[in-house]
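WARN retry 2 of 3 for item q-0093 after timeout on previous attempt; input resubmitted unchanged.
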Amino acid sequence: MLMSSGTVALAQEQGPAEPAAAAKDADQDIIVTARRRDERLIDAPVAITAIGGQTLQNYSVTRVTDMATLVPNLVAGKAASGSSASIFLRGVGSTALSAGFDQSVSFVIDGLPMSRGREISLPQFDIKGVEVLKGPQALYFGKNTTAGLIAITSNGPGDHFEAGIKAGYGFKALDKYTEGYISGPVTDRFGARLAARYSNSEGAFKNTAAEDSTDVLGRAQHRFSSRRGGSESFGARLTLDWDVTDNFKMELKTGATWLNDGGPTDLVERICAAGRTTPASSNGIPPSPNADCKVDGRADVTSLPVEVARANYRYASSNGKMYAKFRSQYGVLTSTLTSDPFDVTSITSYYHFKQTDLNNVAGESYPSTFSQLADFEQFSEEVRFQSKLEGPFNFLAGAFYSHGDFVFNTDAYIFPIPVDPTTGTATTFKRDDGFKSDSLSMFLQGTLALGQFELSAGARYSVEARKSYQRSLAAASAFAAAFPAGIVINDKFDDDNLSPEVTLRYKPSTDTTFYAAYKRGFKSGGYNISQALTPAASQAAGRFGSETAEGGEAGVRTLLFGRALAVNLTAYNYTYSDLQVQTFDPETISLIAGNAGKLRTRGVEGDFNWRVGGGLSIRGAAAYNDAKYKDYIGQCFGGQTVAEGCSLNGGTAQNYSGRTPPKAPKFAGRLGGSFKTPVTDSLNLAINSDVSYTSSYNFTDTLRPDGVQKRFAKVDASVILSGLDDKWSVSLIGRNLTNKLVVTSANDIPFTGANGTRADMSAFIENPREIVLEVGFKF
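OK item q-0093 returned
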């Protein structure tokens, strides 16, 4: 079951209510690591939503985008270029356009820090729990957490043998999957757990393109599938636990993922500008009769002509089919020494991913496409010292270092032309981009216990260095003037930052906590390696500065009625300075990165979880968020007129001050319950259901007035029959039963708007309705 709040959360996975005395046992408490040590969730003075592994299983949640429904004010979805992800918390995040951006909402998976955004593609399985930390988390987790952090912890080997396997079928996406694990002690001091998951989905969306067609030059195109959104993936994880001595322990987690799908644009649908019902022409080419202007699960996706795909179009498939191929590997070695007066923890990690893809952002009649290589390798090391002094004062100190090496190459085919006999290609432009980064930080936090009060204060000092590059390569001769070869830009960015944090906690009783905190956060600047390389391109135009956050929060959380009712309430107020922002200019095909002056977020969030008794529990969460730009002059949207506000900087910029940023709904909430009861002596029945609601928000970076996702509600439910001790189970699971097709982000379609006419939009859609039948066995 889930208890979630936008700021403070209490998640308790419980069956029937226990007697009050038994309910006070420690094993009834959720343990979190938001302050880099194990503590009860109710004791942790941190803005957090905790999701237990059983909740994920109840709704067959295996993707980060599905987790977003469980957390009010989390808007997450795939995107096409750059980071290939759009993740926002409380209206703060990083859009996908620039591959040079680190994410404002980062991931930590089993202690491994990840901030490139493509982690959204990783399948999640055999999960112990998820912690969603909101607001700046610089002290404990370092950079790239100005908006928050999603920490995912997988299961490890226990003290007894166990194994399990389950298989399921999703009726809407024709999704077949199986998942299993085997775990247990190998010796008295050594344990192992192996888990894996395979899935194959044909997709829940319809492809309306003609099976066979021709482009404007009469070259053949083909629709490879009548469905969109399909994928095939496999992931495996091995965990090894070794108690080397009584006070020294090592844990190794290593895993790999491969994923093949139709590319991010397989989830794209066309939204026509200003309420038009007919798609716009692209460069004078009429739209396909198979395209519509609705978010309705239908879109026209076709292949490239093979002549184009095979003509020095790097990373394109030989048959012109749209695709994405993602591969990743990682390893995390956590070593813990327990001693007096310090516990010492070392986390050594390696992470690598490689993705190639070919994407169509304009549809069947005008297949405006781009292909990419994204190849990232990261090594990191963290060392922490936790004191265990007998007096009222203790401290946590440590250091963190990481080195990253990123290659991001792009070819684009934007204009339909014959293959150039001189250069042997039809591509519009070709670029090799990338960066090398080094991060070093040191942190110190002291805690003073004064009876019922605890005062914590600390800071992290960070030094960041990044060397970025861009190089243009020869494309078709027709574009040599607009996108010439031989442009080389090298950039070196350095910055340092001190982010302090002060927290006062008051505990009048074991099960009640009041707290107030002041925090600052930091995300390094750098260079926009997705900048268009034209004769006017410059180093200065690509540079963006560091992003900082400052503010505070205060909250109360308590357990009432014999710990049967958990109630939490928190208020927060943060200001983000030099917020890193990105926009797309569809006329110049430029991805523009920069900094907004300020963004202020403030709000109130609360939740409750009530174990009523007799196997029944009721839960709910609500979040009100008021986000506003301050001191921000930014780009106009394509086709914006002076009357619509495009009146600054010679008619190229608009004033965003006082406006709500994208992906920032004012209200979001979730209400649900669970009921579990014996049906017979050997059969149990469990019913779970939740309704989530999100108010309207704008999904475009330039705040187009026609780029608004209307308010929506989703319903999730599951019915589970199981045997004694859950040795077997049969589950019927429904996600998004209301089938709300929600837009998480959108970009203008190139060349569909000009001379005061708005461009049509490519909108990214996530989470259609799915009905899953699942059978599982445990041994």
